[in-house]
Amino acid sequence: MNDDGHDKPGAGNTSAPTFKDDPGPWDVVSSSYVSCKEWFTVRLERVRLPTGAEIPEYWVTEYRPWVNVVAVTTDDKLVLIRQYRHGLGAVHFEIPAGTTDAGEHDLEAAARRELGEETGYGGGTWSLLATLSANPALQNNLTYTFLAEGVTRLDSGPRPESSEDLRIHLVPVRDVAPLIDGGGFIQALHVAPLLRYLMRRHEKVG
Q1: Which end of the chain has less Cβ packing within 10 Å, N or C?
Q2: Contact predicate 46/137, CB 8 Å
Q3: The CATH number of the domain covering residues in 66-205
Q4: What is the C-alpha separation between 54 and 12, in angstroms, rounded?
Q5: Measured between alpha carbons, how far is residue 197 from residues 18, 27, 64, 110 in Å?
């Protein structure tokens, strides 16, 4: 991770398995930034493939690491939110989520902050549930989803940002799979860790 909190170019899940016949990386012939805004950093690169072919214009967007939380209350309910998303012009169920601050390297602390600010819940036992990429072809950042078990309502209550209009829903864990199957969620980076969580619960029971 860079000092500004962005994932380094090429930062990937180093625990992923590799194979002897995996394709090789591309060489960067030239690279320049065309936008360096807080929420939209874009670099333009000329790259050379292992075959020798070149792509004269390859665009990569840079973001700081994102954090999500699968938060489960002491009475086995998931803390979910609903908010309007202007890109799609729609409202769906989501898990609490946000981004790290500039220069912030403690991912769990960032996730705890986002959960508290968006929902007013906190505490419990925390562990890393999933490390995912939204679009490894065009984005350099990773999304870190934490599992928070046994969360409770904080005295401080929710503290959303001025641009956030959130609705909090407590949904029994048993109802989440049907909710996903019925299209209640549309954010892939939320569906994937939820399914991993449900799969692990099923394995423990089985």
Answers
A1: C
A2: no
A3: 3.90.79.10
A4: 23
A5: 25, 38, 25, 20
Question: In this structure, are residues 158 and 79 in contact, taking their beta carbons and an 8 Å threshold?
Answer: no
Condensed to tens digits (0 to 9), the pLDDT of residues 111-136 reads 999 999 999 999 999 999 999 999 99
Read off the pLDDT band of 205 (50, 70, 90): confident
The closest of 85, 83, 91, 149 to 121, measured between CA atoms, is 149
Q: Measured between alpha carbons, how far is 100 from 4 in angstroms, rounded to an integer? A: 10
> For residue range 62-91, what is the model confidence (pLDDT) as tens digits?
999 999 999 999 999 999 999 999 999 999
Average pLDDT over the chain, rounded to an integer: 92
The two three-digit tokens of residue 27, written as one number: 């060489």
How long a stretch of residues is the chain?
A: 206
Question: What is the 3-state secondary structure of the chain?
Answer: CCCCCCCCCCCCCCCCCCCCCCCCCCEEEEEEEEEEECCEEEEEEEEECCCCCEEEEEEEEECCCEEEEEEEECCCEEEEEEEEECCCCEEEEECCEEECCCCCCCHHHHHHHHHHHHHCEECCEEEEEEEECCCCCCECCCEEEEEEEEEEECCCCCCCCCCCCCEEEEEEHHHHHHHHHCCCECCHHHHHHHHHHHHHHHHHHC
CATH 3.90.79.10 residue ranges of the chain are 66-205
